[in-house]
Structures are given as structure tokens and as C-alpha cells.
Amino acid sequence: MAAKTAAVGGKRKATMGVKGKPKAMAKKARLEDNKKAAPAAEDSDDSDDASDSDDGGVQLSDKIKESKPAAKGYQKTFEPGLTSRESHAKQKQLAAERKAAKPLADEVQRTKKIWERLRRKSHVPKEERQQLVAELFTIITGRMKDFVLKHDAVRAVQTAIKYATSEQRKQIARELEGSYAQLAESRYAKFFIGKLLVQNDDEIRDLIIPDFYGRVRKLINHAEASWILDDIYRTVATKQQKAFLLREWYGPEFTLKELTKDKAVTADLKEILADTPSKRGPIMKSLLEMINTLVQKRMGGFTMLHDAMLQYYLATEPGSEEFKEFMELIKGDETGDLLKNLAFTRSGSRLVCLLLAYGSAKDRKQLLKSYKDTFMAMAGDQYAHLVILTAYDVIDDTKLTAKSIFPELVGEKTEEVVDNIVGAVNNPHARLAFMYLFEGMSKSLFPPGSTFAQDILTEVHEIRKTTSKKDTDARRQELASTLTPHLLEAIATAPADLMSTAFGCQFIADILLCNTGDKAAALEAVAQAAKGNPNEEVPEDEVQPRTHISKTPFGGRMLKSLIQGGRFDKAAGKIIPLEPALGFSNILYPVISDYIVDWATGPSSFVVVALLEAGDFSDAAAVRKTLKKNKKLLEKAAKEQTPEQKAAQEAKEQAAEADKSAGKKKAASKKKTEPAVGNSGSKLLLEKL
To answer: Where does this protein have compositionally biased stretches of type Acidic residues (predicted)?
Structure first.
């Protein structure tokens, strides 16, 4: 081996190349390998000492081996006298012996064999599966905790839960009672908890969740346990259990069950602070620290975090130091992930709406910027779309709002615009992003059964009275005028797609009955979509058969509204026509004139009634003349059951028969009413003739 040429303490500087980098020639010297075998004879002690002192080197141990691969033709060895194959075989044998020496080694091995068989459900007959499950329960009963904490055995226990009876699942849950917090921290056992809870058994739920009480502050910060804890909180916990879990964010004292033993538990922070105002400082500090810890860890997707943030925000006074500090905490997330996650939960969306409502113009701009490239997904979400509607309502800079939101919702190319709008219009939430500017808080826009959206928007409208300067109607009109050309383009390009659904027909009527934009092309396209024979049979081999617009109740209502040319005013008790008038009656009649009798005797007969009642319709005389010639058909339609009436009667009779066979008693009705028979529109037309 080459001797060192420098003393131990001496260092040489490498010659510097371009930009301060050492030259290639100045690289550190490598120890050269000797291709020949080292001599067997050892040097004397004297020579070793002399060499050490002269050269300044340190003697290398004989045990240090070269890392360079053996040259071709030489056999690499791992132990004296063993080849690579023999050494690996020995290592494998030792590993198997160590594994066999572990507790429950044989049982774990058998459970794995059973699992391998059970997981192939389609290949295992029912009787054999029952036998395997019974054997599996025999092995794991009484030693459940030992199995679920082993990464390879926990899968077998999960399979046992899958095929177990309700009583067997409860048996597993009872055996593990008191261990669920520990299992939640396990990388693999946390999924076992999810398997138990997914069965929707109240007894199992009430065994598992109380085990987390007093440990929430620790578990929510744990890398593994935090996810299963939040899933439990979000999906299966009752209102009371959620309150117990969320209260622990307010401070260590809230982990003591004795404090809430004799009273109803609430997680409403405002209420808690009202009862104990002296503890406001410690509680708010503890909660903010918990929130900040998770935000800094980039764990902003937890529903429990969003609930805690909303509680903190509602407990602050607008304009206070706590209020400003919290706003800065949220704005300080440079990635914007926190705000994006907040928008998609119930509490989070309300929080963002309140932030927009109370924020300054600068705050609103920054909050809106955080949602870049997310507005399309937000529009279709049941909670996130409220953030878009709030932005419409509170941001005074309408150019900023339109520039930030509309390009993402609508798109740029014509095909993209049409696809996006048609898709959004048929989504119960996304359609509000377009129609809210025209309909406002109309009940027909919001999904039935929930007032959550209306409650938030009403709250925002109350706040904006003191935080926004622009007139409400002016703000909405400016936004609508920017959006309308895109919507009219979609109606003109794809009227048939829109008219095939109830939401699409409502959208067309709302946009065409507004006072903005050039509607000529859209009105003509809607009229052309109504052409053709209403009674023509739809080919059976057609991939996507479409019913004629006159056969759909929503299509008839839309055409009638457009012919009337205005919206119904409840206060005035009449329809207020647009100025200038739409004139749709004169656009539609030439398209449907050949089949006017079919329209008059069909499901959309009120379209013909609206034509005769329209003040600007120029062909009323021709329509009356045609109908008089076919008066017998009108009389027949007015007397006979319509297909819809016949179907309704048959359904009623079937329901009565089903109740009778089930032994249900018929409820006594106060007054027997005869079902209506005949086409109501045809009856009105006969009166007008």
C-alpha cells in the first residue's frame, strides 16, 4: 500500500479551477489496490513503529477488507470456507429459526395460510369458508391484541371481521376494549379499527370512541393515529361524542370526564366562555396553539381542525387582536392548501365565507388568489360552491371577481365552454355558480331538504352591510353582464343537450328572461330544437334516444315561459314582460305550425294556449282557424284520460293492492275527490274557440 507523503496534521489545499472549484488533477488520491495477495510474513514491531513515526500514517487493521469486487476467476466468500450460495442459505435458515422462536409463531403462520385461502372469495365454497372462519376465531380468541399488532397477522383478523357474524364482531370489539388508542398509533392496526366501525354497529362504536377520550391532543398530532381519529370524528361519531373529542382542544382540563359527569356536554366555545369568562385567556391560547401546530405540520385536511378553527373564529370579536392574529395565521399558509381544504367541509366553508365577509379588500383579494385552479372543483361541491357565491356577494371589485373565477368555470375554446356549462347546469351545486347572479336567493335554485346554504348566505348578506361599499344590485348586474355572453353562446350551440333535462330547461328560461345580452341566436336555436313530429316513434336501436321536447313537462313549462316573455311578480299578481319584448311566439310558431294540433292535444298543450294569449303573437287567427277545423280532436283529448293520468291511476291501484295484501288498513279520507280526466290545455283551447 502506498505510503502517505504528508504529516497527519498537515493539509494541502487543492489547486482551484474556474469559479473556485478544484481542478480534476487535484482530486484526493485513492489508495491503490494490490492485485497480488498480501505477504504472509508479518513485520517486526520495530519496523512498524519506525514506519508509523516516519510517514505519519496509522497502521490499518488486518480486518479491513477492500470493497472492490473480486476479480474474474476468483470465488467471493462471506465466511471462511463458504460460498455465496451456502452463506445465503445459512442466513435464511437463521432467519427462519429466529422467526420460529417468536411467541405465537405457529399460530401466526396458520392464520396467514387461512387468510391466503379466504381472500380469494370466488374460489372458496361457502361451507369451506365457514369452517376456515371458525378455525380462525378459535386461534385468535383470547389473544386478539397480540395478533392485531403484528403487521402480517392483522390482515387475517380483518378477514375474520369481514365474514364474522354480528355477535362475533362484538366479541372482538369487547376483547380489545381499552386498547384502541394504542391500536390507532399502529401503522397497520389502525385499519383494523376502520374495519370494525364500517359495519355501522352502535355498540361497537360506543366501545371504541370513548377509548380516545383524554388522549385527543396526543393522537391528533400522531403521524398514524391522527388520520383514523379524524375519520371516526367525521363519519361515525355521534353529536355528543364529537363534542367530547373537540372539547379536548380547549385545554388539558377538558380531558377530565368528572367535570362533565352531571351535565350536557357542548363543544360550543362561545357558550363555554360565557359560563367561565375567567378562563378565556388559557382556553383561547391552548386552542390557537393546537391549530397552529397542525397548520405548521401541513395537516390542514382534518375536519376536526376545521371545526376547531370555526369555534375559535366565532369566539373572537371582529377587529380585535385575536381576530387579526387568526386571519394572519390563515393567510400565512403560502401554499394555500389550508384554505383549499377548508372550502370542502361544512365548518370550513362557513369559516371561509365569514373571512371573505369580514375581510378587507386586500384580504379578500389574497383569499381569492389562494383558490386559483380550484374553482371548477369548488363549484360542484356541496360546501365549496358557497365560497364562490360569497365572493360574488361581498367583493366590490367585480373585475377582479370575474377575472379570477369565470375563466376557470367557463373555459376558453367554444367546445370547452359548451361542455363546461352543460355539465355544470345539470349539477345541483355547480349550476348555482351561473344562475345565482340571475335568480338570487330563489328557493328553486337550492337543493330541497337543507337550509345550510341559505343560512350562510343570509348571514353574509347581513355582514356585508357594514363591510362592502358597492350597491348589491349594481355588483350583481356587473358580474351577470360579463358572464351572460358565454351562457348565451352555450344555449345557441347546444340547445338540445340543455333541453333534455329539467335543470337545463330552467337554466335556459332564467338566462333568456334576463335583461342582458343579445338573445336572437339563442332564441332561434331553442325554437329549432322543438321542430319535428311530437308523435314520431323513437328508434329502438338509437344509442341515446331523445324524447321530443313537447312530451316532457319541463320542456313545455320552459316554452310557455318564453312565450309569455317575463317573470311572474307575486306582489303585482301578474307577469311583468321584458323590455324590449322577447317575441319568442313569432319565432317558435313557424317551426311547429305543421304539428300545431298535435301540440294542442298533447302534454304541452299549454304552449298553444300561451300562443293565443300572447299580445305580440301575429298568427293567432291562423292558429284558431286550424284548431276549429280539428275541433273533434280537441274534444276527444279534453274527455279521454291522458297517458300520464292513466299511469298515475295504475300506480295508485297497485299501491292500494299492495297495502291490502300487507294487511294495512285504509286511512279514512274526509272527502272523496275524483281524479281529473282529460287534457286541461285542450279544454282551455275549446273555450277560446
So the answer is: 42-55
DSSP 77: -
Smallest CA-to-CA distance from 326 within 336, 315, 335 is with 315
Q: Which residues contact 344 (CB under 8 A, 6 or more apart)?
A: 378, 381, 383, 384
Buried b / exposed e along 15-52 (16+ C-beta atoms within 10 A): eeeeeeeeeeeeeeeeeeeeeeeeeeeeeeeeeeeeee
Whether the upstream peptide bond of residue 318 has omega within 30° of 0, thus cis, is no
**Which position has the grid cell 473480486?**
70
Distance between CA atoms of residues 157 and 172, nearest Å:
9
State residue 568 phi and psi, 5-degree precision: -80, 125
Answer whether residue 673 shows pLDDT above 80: no
Residue 187, classified by CB atoms within 10 Å of its CB into exposed (0-12), middle (13-18) or buried (19+), is exposed
| Consecutive H or E run containing 576 | strand 574-577
Cell of 412: 376558453
Q: Are 226 and 299 in contact (CB under 8 A)?
A: yes
Count of all residues that appear for the chain in the document = 689
Residue ranges per structural domain of the chain: 102-212, 549-649+677-689
**Triad 81, 85, 86: Cα angle to 5°:** 45
Instruction: Give the separation between CA 421 and CA 142, rounded to whole angstroms.
Output: 60
Percent of the residues in the chain that have a pLDDT greater than 70, as a whole number:
82
Q: What are the residues whose beta carbons fall under 8 Å from the beta carbon of 150, sequence distance 6 or more?
A: 108
Residue 569 pairs in a beta bridge with 574
Grid coordinates representing 29?
488520491
Amino acid (1-letter code) at residue 68: K
Tens digits of residue pLDDT in 343-379: 999 999 999 999 999 999 999 999 999 999 999 999 9
Q: pLDDT tier at 668 (50, 70, 90 boundaries)?
A: low
Question: Measured between alpha carbons, how far is 557 from 549 in angstroms, rounded to an integer?
Answer: 10
Task: Please give the pLDDT value at position 286.
Answer: 94
Q: How far is residue 201's CA from residue 143's CA, in Å, rounded to a whole number?
A: 23
Bridge partners of residue 574, in order along the sequence: 569
